[in-house]
Amino acid sequence: MTTNATENRYTGLINNYISRMPIDPNGRIISLGEGNTPLIECHNIELLKKYNIRLLLKYEGLNPTGSFKDRGMTMAVTKAVQDGSRAIICASTGNTSASAAAYASRAGISAFVLIPEGRIAMGKLAQAMIQGAVVIQVKGNFDDGMRLVKEVAKEAPVDIVNSINPYRLQGQKTAAFEIVDELGVAPDFHCLPVGNAGNITAHWIGYSEYANQCTQSCSLCSGKCQFLQGMKSAKRPQMVGYQAAGSAPFMRGEMVDAPETLATAIRIGHPQSWDNAWKVHKESGGWFDECSDYEILAAQRLLAGSEGVFCEPASATSVAGALRDIESGKIPAGSTVVCTLTGHGLKDPDTAIKQATSKLITIDAKLADVKDAILSNMD
Ligand code: AN7
């Protein structure tokens, strides 16, 4: 391969943050250019103006396979390949399977994905299938699949790439780095949808790493060193995790055996990062809460209709919860809030079409008909 000395391409988050990645930089790196996703500031949601809230959407749906999972998967698959692994395995509500399939395909190894039969969004199933994964439908839910994956990995030569694999979290922590790099300082609140709680844990790792670097290298800044070029802020956000009401073990204080929600990505009753999530909760001074499916879908429509940002239902949970907590004052007026939009809306077109309020107008192929359709639908 030839490289051009003047080239300055973005080549993925491992290369971008190589000094912070526990990986051999000289080994083979499996990347699809993940990370570097936009932080989109909301401009049109009225509630935000009323309370003088700066709300930024970290649009993780713009990763290569359409979700934040790619951040973790580049690390997990790179590590597996560097260790000589020939096959990876995961249980998934959909996005992990899509990402595992893509990175395995890129690496030239096999991917086995266990999904709950009939309960994953169509886009995710399409991704896993066309990217050559062996798709195993389990007559059960995600938690059943996860149990089976752990059991089978003891007996078969496969590496688990669920977020219990610590390399996944190391990749996903870079989302926090990007936010601080861009804003110059951590936000006051960071809101995420929570399923297994791997992502909220990974973000806390990322924020903490940056904060520690600052306090170790500088005793002058009193947490305000974002004003000094090249330094990171010692500030860390309060981490807020929102679950779907039918799948909210962190609210129940115990595992949920039959989780239900229309936001199938977070239909998880036995979170794998249970202890870590409670640590994040305590250390960051944040909280957990739950949103109904109705609130989740309303937030999805609001983002698509008011800000032009289309995320999948599970992702909208972060915004549904944040807007409620802004209204109640739990998130105080004047705060800067980041909400992670974990996956792209195109993952789940069925749910979007079912709830869309736009009319679908059918006409004859005639000028008069199209004119009529326009004039009778002007705002
Ligand atoms: C869009 O794909 O667990 O709290 O198997 O796809 O880190 O589990 C997906 C999780 C949020 C929750 N938003 O993140 C899987 C899977 C979306 C997701 C989550 C998921 P974690």
Structural notes for this entry:
The protein has 379 residues and is of the alpha/beta class. The protein has 15 helices and ten strands. Strands 1-2-10-7-8-9 form a six-stranded mixed sheet, with helices on both faces. Strands 5-4-3-6 form a four-stranded parallel sheet. Helix 7 packs across helix 9, helix 9 crosses helix 11 and helix 12 crosses helix 13 (313-328). The protein is globular, with a radius of gyration of 21 Å. The relative contact order is 0.14. Residues 215-219 and 221-230 have low confidence and may be disordered.
Q: Could you write a compact summary of the structure shown?
A:
Helices cover 41% and strands 13% of the residues. By secondary structure, the protein is an alpha/beta fold. About 4% of the residues have low confidence.
Oligomeric organization of the protein chains: single chain
Gap from first CA to last CA: 55 Å
Taken as a percent bin, the fraction of beta residues is 5-15%
Strand elements, count: 10
Number of helices: 15
* Major beta-sheet overview: 6 strands, mixed
Structural class: alpha/beta
- Give the ligands present: ligand AN7
Radius of gyration: 21 Å
Strand order of the largest sheet: 1-2-10-7-8-9
Order of helices and strands: HEHEHEHEHEHEHHEHEHHEHHEHH
Give the low-pLDDT segments. Answer: 215-219, 221-230
Shape: globular
Mean pLDDT: 94
Helix content bin = 40-55%
Features:
single chain, 379 residues, alpha/beta, six-stranded mixed sheet, four-stranded parallel sheet, 15 helices, 13% strand, binds ligand AN7
